[in-house]
Amino acid sequence: MLQPPRRNSDQPKTAVIGGGIIGLSIAWRLAQCGADVTVFDSGATGHGATHAAAGMLAACAEAEPGEERLIALCREGQARWPAFAAELEEASRLSVDLRREGTLVLAPTADEQARLKHQLEFQHSLDLPVEWISTAELRRREPHVANIAGAVFSPEDHQVDNRKVATALRAAAEAAGAVIREHTPVQEIAIAGGRVSHLVLDDGSRFAADAIVLAAGAWSRSIAGLPAEARVPVRPVKGQMICLQMNAAQPLLNHVVWAPGVYLVPRRDGRLLVGATVEEKGFDTSLTAGGILALLEAAWRVIPAIEELPVAEMWVGHRPGSRDDAPIIGPSLIEGLIYATGHHRNGVLLAPLTADVVARCVLDGTLDPIVRPFGLDRFAAAKAA
After folding, report:
1. Considering only CA atoms, which of 47, 34, 42, 52 is closest in space to residue 17?
2. Which residue, 28, 120, 197, 227, is most buried by CB atoms nearer than 10 A?
Protein backbone atom coordinates (compact mmCIF):
# COMPACT_ATOMS: atom_id res chain seq x y z
CA MET A 1 0.00 0.00 0.00
CA LEU A 2 1.28 3.46 -0.86
CA GLN A 3 2.41 5.51 2.13
CA PRO A 4 1.48 9.22 2.30
CA PRO A 5 4.30 11.73 2.66
CA ARG A 6 4.89 13.46 5.98
CA ARG A 7 2.77 16.56 6.50
CA ASN A 8 4.58 19.86 6.04
CA SER A 9 3.43 22.26 8.76
CA ASP A 10 4.66 25.22 6.70
CA GLN A 11 2.14 24.49 3.95
CA PRO A 12 -1.29 26.16 4.08
CA LYS A 13 -4.24 24.12 5.31
CA THR A 14 -6.29 23.86 2.15
CA ALA A 15 -9.95 23.08 1.49
CA VAL A 16 -11.01 22.10 -2.01
CA ILE A 17 -14.70 22.57 -2.75
CA GLY A 18 -15.65 20.02 -5.41
CA GLY A 19 -14.62 16.40 -5.86
CA GLY A 20 -14.71 16.15 -9.65
CA ILE A 21 -11.70 15.60 -11.86
CA ILE A 22 -10.49 19.19 -11.29
CA GLY A 23 -10.82 19.16 -7.50
CA LEU A 24 -9.36 15.68 -7.12
CA SER A 25 -6.41 16.46 -9.39
CA ILE A 26 -5.60 19.58 -7.39
CA ALA A 27 -5.92 17.71 -4.09
CA TRP A 28 -3.58 14.98 -5.33
CA ARG A 29 -0.94 17.49 -6.40
CA LEU A 30 -1.18 19.36 -3.08
CA ALA A 31 -1.01 16.17 -1.04
CA GLN A 32 2.04 15.04 -3.01
CA CYS A 33 3.76 18.19 -1.76
CA GLY A 34 2.90 17.37 1.83
CA ALA A 35 0.06 19.88 2.11
CA ASP A 36 -2.82 19.39 4.53
CA VAL A 37 -5.72 19.19 2.04
CA THR A 38 -9.37 18.20 2.44
CA VAL A 39 -11.86 17.80 -0.42
CA PHE A 40 -15.55 18.49 0.15
CA ASP A 41 -18.21 17.21 -2.24
CA SER A 42 -21.97 17.50 -1.88
CA GLY A 43 -22.35 14.01 -3.35
CA ALA A 44 -19.98 11.20 -4.30
CA THR A 45 -16.65 12.23 -5.77
CA GLY A 46 -16.42 12.04 -9.54
CA HIS A 47 -20.19 11.72 -10.01
CA GLY A 48 -21.04 15.16 -11.41
CA ALA A 49 -19.81 16.48 -14.75
CA THR A 50 -16.80 14.16 -14.52
CA HIS A 51 -19.03 11.08 -14.53
CA ALA A 52 -21.12 12.44 -17.40
CA ALA A 53 -18.21 13.40 -19.68
CA ALA A 54 -16.83 11.50 -22.67
CA GLY A 55 -13.14 11.90 -21.83
CA MET A 56 -12.05 13.40 -25.16
CA LEU A 57 -8.70 15.22 -25.23
CA ALA A 58 -9.67 17.22 -28.32
CA ALA A 59 -7.58 20.38 -28.39
CA CYS A 60 -7.22 20.35 -32.18
CA ALA A 61 -10.48 19.02 -33.63
CA GLU A 62 -12.57 21.56 -31.72
CA ALA A 63 -10.37 24.57 -32.50
CA GLU A 64 -12.43 27.53 -33.71
CA PRO A 65 -11.52 31.11 -34.77
CA GLY A 66 -11.64 33.60 -31.91
CA GLU A 67 -10.45 31.04 -29.36
CA GLU A 68 -6.71 31.27 -30.00
CA ARG A 69 -5.77 31.74 -26.34
CA LEU A 70 -8.01 28.89 -25.26
CA ILE A 71 -6.58 26.67 -28.00
CA ALA A 72 -3.05 27.35 -26.73
CA LEU A 73 -4.15 26.49 -23.19
CA CYS A 74 -5.84 23.29 -24.36
CA ARG A 75 -2.79 22.25 -26.37
CA GLU A 76 -0.63 22.65 -23.27
CA GLY A 77 -3.15 20.64 -21.28
CA GLN A 78 -3.14 17.97 -23.96
CA ALA A 79 0.66 17.75 -23.90
CA ARG A 80 0.64 17.02 -20.17
CA TRP A 81 -1.77 14.09 -20.36
CA PRO A 82 0.57 11.19 -21.25
CA ALA A 83 2.89 11.82 -18.29
CA PHE A 84 -0.07 12.60 -16.02
CA ALA A 85 -1.82 9.34 -16.96
CA ALA A 86 1.33 7.29 -16.43
CA GLU A 87 2.00 8.90 -13.04
CA LEU A 88 -1.62 8.46 -11.96
CA GLU A 89 -1.67 4.80 -12.95
CA GLU A 90 1.53 4.19 -11.01
CA ALA A 91 0.28 6.04 -7.93
CA SER A 92 -3.17 4.43 -7.88
CA ARG A 93 -2.35 1.02 -9.38
CA LEU A 94 -5.41 1.55 -11.59
CA SER A 95 -5.75 1.91 -15.36
CA VAL A 96 -7.23 5.08 -16.86
CA ASP A 97 -7.36 3.76 -20.46
CA LEU A 98 -5.55 6.54 -22.29
CA ARG A 99 -6.11 5.70 -25.97
CA ARG A 100 -4.07 7.24 -28.79
CA GLU A 101 -5.82 6.27 -32.01
CA GLY A 102 -6.65 9.92 -32.70
CA THR A 103 -9.86 11.58 -33.83
CA LEU A 104 -11.70 11.66 -37.16
CA VAL A 105 -13.89 14.62 -38.09
CA LEU A 106 -16.41 13.71 -40.79
CA ALA A 107 -18.23 15.79 -43.40
CA PRO A 108 -21.27 13.81 -44.65
CA THR A 109 -22.26 16.35 -47.34
CA ALA A 110 -20.61 18.70 -49.81
CA ASP A 111 -21.66 21.69 -47.72
CA GLU A 112 -20.10 20.16 -44.63
CA GLN A 113 -16.98 19.36 -46.64
CA ALA A 114 -16.60 23.03 -47.58
CA ARG A 115 -17.06 24.07 -43.94
CA LEU A 116 -14.56 21.46 -42.77
CA LYS A 117 -11.94 22.59 -45.30
CA HIS A 118 -12.40 26.20 -44.18
CA GLN A 119 -11.87 25.12 -40.57
CA LEU A 120 -8.82 23.12 -41.65
CA GLU A 121 -7.25 26.27 -43.10
CA PHE A 122 -7.66 28.00 -39.75
CA GLN A 123 -6.20 25.01 -37.89
CA HIS A 124 -3.20 24.95 -40.20
CA SER A 125 -2.67 28.67 -39.61
CA LEU A 126 -2.05 27.74 -35.95
CA ASP A 127 0.22 24.83 -36.94
CA LEU A 128 -2.18 22.31 -35.46
CA PRO A 129 -1.39 18.71 -36.48
CA VAL A 130 -4.52 17.93 -38.50
CA GLU A 131 -4.74 16.58 -42.05
CA TRP A 132 -7.27 15.95 -44.78
CA ILE A 133 -7.60 12.27 -45.62
CA SER A 134 -9.19 10.58 -48.61
CA THR A 135 -12.41 8.62 -48.41
CA ALA A 136 -10.39 5.49 -49.21
CA GLU A 137 -8.12 6.14 -46.24
CA LEU A 138 -11.14 6.84 -44.05
CA ARG A 139 -12.70 3.56 -45.15
CA ARG A 140 -9.45 1.73 -44.36
CA ARG A 141 -9.39 3.18 -40.86
CA GLU A 142 -13.11 2.80 -40.15
CA PRO A 143 -14.91 0.36 -42.51
CA HIS A 144 -18.34 0.93 -40.94
CA VAL A 145 -18.49 4.64 -41.75
CA ALA A 146 -21.17 5.56 -44.30
CA ASN A 147 -20.44 7.30 -47.61
CA ILE A 148 -18.78 10.53 -46.56
CA ALA A 149 -17.82 13.59 -48.61
CA GLY A 150 -14.62 14.20 -46.67
CA ALA A 151 -12.76 13.77 -43.41
CA VAL A 152 -9.99 15.28 -41.30
CA PHE A 153 -7.69 13.22 -39.11
CA SER A 154 -6.39 14.69 -35.86
CA PRO A 155 -3.64 12.32 -34.65
CA GLU A 156 -3.00 14.02 -31.28
CA ASP A 157 -6.63 14.25 -30.12
CA HIS A 158 -6.89 11.20 -27.89
CA GLN A 159 -9.29 9.98 -25.21
CA VAL A 160 -9.24 8.73 -21.65
CA ASP A 161 -11.88 6.94 -19.59
CA ASN A 162 -12.99 9.80 -17.36
CA ARG A 163 -14.79 7.57 -14.87
CA LYS A 164 -11.67 5.48 -14.37
CA VAL A 165 -9.63 8.67 -14.01
CA ALA A 166 -11.89 9.85 -11.19
CA THR A 167 -11.55 6.54 -9.35
CA ALA A 168 -7.78 6.57 -9.78
CA LEU A 169 -7.49 10.18 -8.65
CA ARG A 170 -9.36 9.50 -5.44
CA ALA A 171 -7.13 6.52 -4.69
CA ALA A 172 -3.96 8.47 -5.48
CA ALA A 173 -5.04 11.54 -3.51
CA GLU A 174 -5.93 9.54 -0.42
CA ALA A 175 -2.72 7.51 -0.67
CA ALA A 176 -0.80 10.79 -0.74
CA GLY A 177 -2.57 11.98 2.40
CA ALA A 178 -5.57 13.97 1.18
CA VAL A 179 -8.83 13.69 3.12
CA ILE A 180 -12.01 13.18 1.08
CA ARG A 181 -15.34 14.17 2.62
CA GLU A 182 -18.22 13.02 0.44
CA HIS A 183 -21.88 13.99 0.91
CA THR A 184 -20.72 17.10 2.78
CA PRO A 185 -22.15 20.19 1.10
CA VAL A 186 -20.45 23.53 1.67
CA GLN A 187 -22.95 26.27 2.40
CA GLU A 188 -20.68 29.27 2.75
CA ILE A 189 -17.14 30.56 2.41
CA ALA A 190 -16.52 32.78 5.44
CA ILE A 191 -14.29 35.84 5.09
CA ALA A 192 -12.58 37.86 7.82
CA GLY A 193 -10.31 40.84 7.28
CA GLY A 194 -10.30 40.47 3.52
CA ARG A 195 -9.16 36.86 3.47
CA VAL A 196 -10.76 33.43 3.75
CA SER A 197 -11.38 32.20 7.26
CA HIS A 198 -13.34 28.96 7.17
CA LEU A 199 -16.06 26.97 5.46
CA VAL A 200 -19.54 26.65 6.88
CA LEU A 201 -20.81 23.15 6.17
CA ASP A 202 -24.38 22.00 5.63
CA ASP A 203 -24.73 20.85 9.22
CA GLY A 204 -23.60 24.26 10.53
CA SER A 205 -20.12 23.11 11.53
CA ARG A 206 -16.99 25.03 10.54
CA PHE A 207 -13.81 23.98 8.80
CA ALA A 208 -10.91 26.42 9.19
CA ALA A 209 -8.65 26.84 6.16
CA ASP A 210 -5.75 29.04 5.10
CA ALA A 211 -6.57 28.52 1.43
CA ILE A 212 -9.80 27.54 -0.32
CA VAL A 213 -9.98 26.26 -3.89
CA LEU A 214 -13.38 26.73 -5.51
CA ALA A 215 -13.68 23.81 -7.94
CA ALA A 216 -17.38 23.04 -7.70
CA GLY A 217 -18.04 23.13 -11.45
CA ALA A 218 -21.54 24.24 -12.42
CA TRP A 219 -22.38 24.64 -8.73
CA SER A 220 -19.55 27.11 -8.03
CA ARG A 221 -21.79 30.17 -8.04
CA SER A 222 -24.17 28.69 -5.48
CA ILE A 223 -21.65 28.79 -2.62
CA ALA A 224 -22.66 31.66 -0.33
CA GLY A 225 -20.49 34.17 1.48
CA LEU A 226 -18.64 35.83 -1.36
CA PRO A 227 -19.20 39.46 -2.36
CA ALA A 228 -20.74 40.03 -5.80
CA GLU A 229 -17.41 40.93 -7.40
CA ALA A 230 -15.88 37.63 -6.25
CA ARG A 231 -18.71 35.34 -7.39
CA VAL A 232 -17.89 33.40 -10.53
CA PRO A 233 -20.23 33.76 -13.54
CA VAL A 234 -20.57 30.02 -14.04
CA ARG A 235 -23.79 28.39 -15.20
CA PRO A 236 -24.88 24.80 -15.91
CA VAL A 237 -24.95 23.77 -19.58
CA LYS A 238 -27.05 20.63 -19.87
CA GLY A 239 -25.90 17.70 -21.99
CA GLN A 240 -27.74 14.46 -22.73
CA MET A 241 -25.73 11.37 -23.67
CA ILE A 242 -26.29 7.75 -24.65
CA CYS A 243 -24.11 4.67 -24.28
CA LEU A 244 -24.52 1.85 -26.80
CA GLN A 245 -22.90 -1.55 -26.41
CA MET A 246 -20.66 -2.90 -29.16
CA ASN A 247 -18.95 -6.26 -29.38
CA ALA A 248 -15.63 -5.47 -27.66
CA ALA A 249 -13.83 -8.04 -29.82
CA GLN A 250 -15.21 -6.56 -33.07
CA PRO A 251 -16.08 -2.91 -32.38
CA LEU A 252 -17.80 -0.75 -34.98
CA LEU A 253 -15.37 2.08 -34.24
CA ASN A 254 -11.81 2.41 -33.01
CA HIS A 255 -11.30 6.17 -33.35
CA VAL A 256 -13.14 8.99 -31.70
CA VAL A 257 -15.45 10.36 -34.42
CA TRP A 258 -16.93 13.83 -34.76
CA ALA A 259 -19.78 14.54 -37.19
CA PRO A 260 -22.40 17.30 -37.44
CA GLY A 261 -24.44 17.28 -34.24
CA VAL A 262 -22.72 14.34 -32.59
CA TYR A 263 -19.53 12.68 -31.42
CA LEU A 264 -18.89 8.98 -30.87
CA VAL A 265 -16.30 7.67 -28.41
CA PRO A 266 -15.46 3.93 -28.36
CA ARG A 267 -14.24 2.32 -25.15
CA ARG A 268 -12.09 -0.78 -24.82
CA ASP A 269 -14.89 -2.69 -23.11
CA GLY A 270 -17.17 -2.21 -26.13
CA ARG A 271 -19.13 0.78 -24.86
CA LEU A 272 -19.82 3.46 -27.47
CA LEU A 273 -20.60 6.90 -26.07
CA VAL A 274 -22.86 9.08 -28.21
CA GLY A 275 -23.10 12.72 -27.24
CA ALA A 276 -24.00 15.31 -26.51
CA THR A 277 -26.72 17.91 -26.54
CA VAL A 278 -25.92 21.49 -25.54
CA GLU A 279 -28.88 23.02 -23.70
CA GLU A 280 -29.33 26.17 -21.62
CA LYS A 281 -31.87 24.67 -19.22
CA GLY A 282 -30.29 25.18 -15.83
CA PHE A 283 -30.00 22.08 -13.68
CA ASP A 284 -32.76 20.21 -15.51
CA THR A 285 -31.97 16.48 -15.36
CA SER A 286 -34.64 15.12 -17.70
CA LEU A 287 -33.81 12.93 -20.67
CA THR A 288 -35.96 14.03 -23.60
CA ALA A 289 -37.20 12.22 -26.68
CA GLY A 290 -36.03 15.09 -28.89
CA GLY A 291 -32.54 15.15 -27.44
CA ILE A 292 -32.03 11.40 -27.70
CA LEU A 293 -33.55 11.30 -31.20
CA ALA A 294 -31.25 14.06 -32.44
CA LEU A 295 -28.16 12.27 -31.17
CA LEU A 296 -29.13 8.86 -32.55
CA GLU A 297 -30.14 10.25 -35.92
CA ALA A 298 -26.89 12.20 -36.28
CA ALA A 299 -24.88 9.13 -35.28
CA TRP A 300 -26.85 6.83 -37.61
CA ARG A 301 -26.13 9.12 -40.57
CA VAL A 302 -22.41 8.38 -40.28
CA ILE A 303 -22.43 4.89 -38.69
CA PRO A 304 -25.64 3.18 -39.89
CA ALA A 305 -24.79 -0.09 -38.11
CA ILE A 306 -25.45 1.48 -34.70
CA GLU A 307 -29.16 0.72 -35.20
CA GLU A 308 -28.43 -2.87 -34.19
CA LEU A 309 -26.66 -1.97 -30.95
CA PRO A 310 -28.42 -2.24 -27.59
CA VAL A 311 -28.73 0.85 -25.42
CA ALA A 312 -26.66 0.34 -22.27
CA GLU A 313 -27.15 3.66 -20.48
CA MET A 314 -28.46 7.22 -20.86
CA TRP A 315 -27.69 10.20 -18.67
CA VAL A 316 -27.62 13.96 -18.23
CA GLY A 317 -24.65 16.06 -17.14
CA HIS A 318 -24.09 19.74 -16.47
CA ARG A 319 -20.99 21.39 -17.88
CA PRO A 320 -19.73 24.45 -15.98
CA GLY A 321 -19.93 27.24 -18.58
CA SER A 322 -18.55 30.74 -18.03
CA ARG A 323 -19.56 33.84 -20.00
CA ASP A 324 -17.01 33.04 -22.71
CA ASP A 325 -17.04 29.27 -22.11
CA ALA A 326 -13.37 29.37 -21.06
CA PRO A 327 -12.15 28.34 -17.61
CA ILE A 328 -11.72 30.64 -14.62
CA ILE A 329 -8.39 29.81 -13.00
CA GLY A 330 -6.29 31.69 -10.47
CA PRO A 331 -6.47 33.88 -7.36
CA SER A 332 -9.46 36.03 -6.47
CA LEU A 333 -9.95 39.42 -4.86
CA ILE A 334 -10.22 37.55 -1.55
CA GLU A 335 -6.85 36.52 -0.15
CA GLY A 336 -6.59 32.75 0.05
CA LEU A 337 -9.44 32.05 -2.39
CA ILE A 338 -8.42 30.45 -5.68
CA TYR A 339 -10.69 29.59 -8.60
CA ALA A 340 -10.56 26.40 -10.65
CA THR A 341 -13.91 26.27 -12.40
CA GLY A 342 -15.83 27.11 -15.59
CA HIS A 343 -14.01 24.56 -17.76
CA HIS A 344 -17.14 23.86 -19.84
CA ARG A 345 -16.23 21.04 -22.30
CA ASN A 346 -12.55 20.99 -21.36
CA GLY A 347 -12.53 19.81 -17.77
CA VAL A 348 -10.95 16.43 -18.50
CA LEU A 349 -8.53 17.89 -21.03
CA LEU A 350 -7.34 20.67 -18.69
CA ALA A 351 -7.25 18.70 -15.43
CA PRO A 352 -3.47 18.04 -15.37
CA LEU A 353 -2.61 21.64 -16.24
CA THR A 354 -5.15 23.10 -13.81
CA ALA A 355 -3.86 20.87 -11.01
CA ASP A 356 -0.25 21.94 -11.57
CA VAL A 357 -1.09 25.63 -11.85
CA VAL A 358 -3.46 25.81 -8.87
CA ALA A 359 -1.26 23.72 -6.59
CA ARG A 360 1.65 26.05 -7.32
CA CYS A 361 -0.56 29.08 -6.69
CA VAL A 362 -1.64 27.69 -3.31
CA LEU A 363 1.84 26.68 -2.21
CA ASP A 364 3.99 29.60 -3.28
CA GLY A 365 1.59 32.26 -4.56
CA THR A 366 2.87 32.25 -8.14
CA LEU A 367 0.66 31.97 -11.21
CA ASP A 368 1.76 30.37 -14.47
CA PRO A 369 1.59 32.98 -17.27
CA ILE A 370 -0.36 30.58 -19.50
CA VAL A 371 -3.48 30.96 -17.31
CA ARG A 372 -3.27 34.69 -16.65
CA PRO A 373 -5.74 35.48 -19.48
CA PHE A 374 -8.25 33.19 -17.74
CA GLY A 375 -8.69 35.00 -14.43
CA LEU A 376 -12.01 36.34 -13.20
CA ASP A 377 -10.78 39.88 -13.81
CA ARG A 378 -11.12 39.46 -17.57
CA PHE A 379 -14.88 39.90 -17.30
CA ALA A 380 -14.56 43.16 -15.39
CA ALA A 381 -12.04 44.40 -17.98
CA ALA A 382 -14.38 43.49 -20.83
CA LYS A 383 -17.27 45.31 -19.14
CA ALA A 384 -15.14 48.41 -18.58
CA ALA A 385 -14.05 48.42 -22.22
Report:
1. 42
2. 28
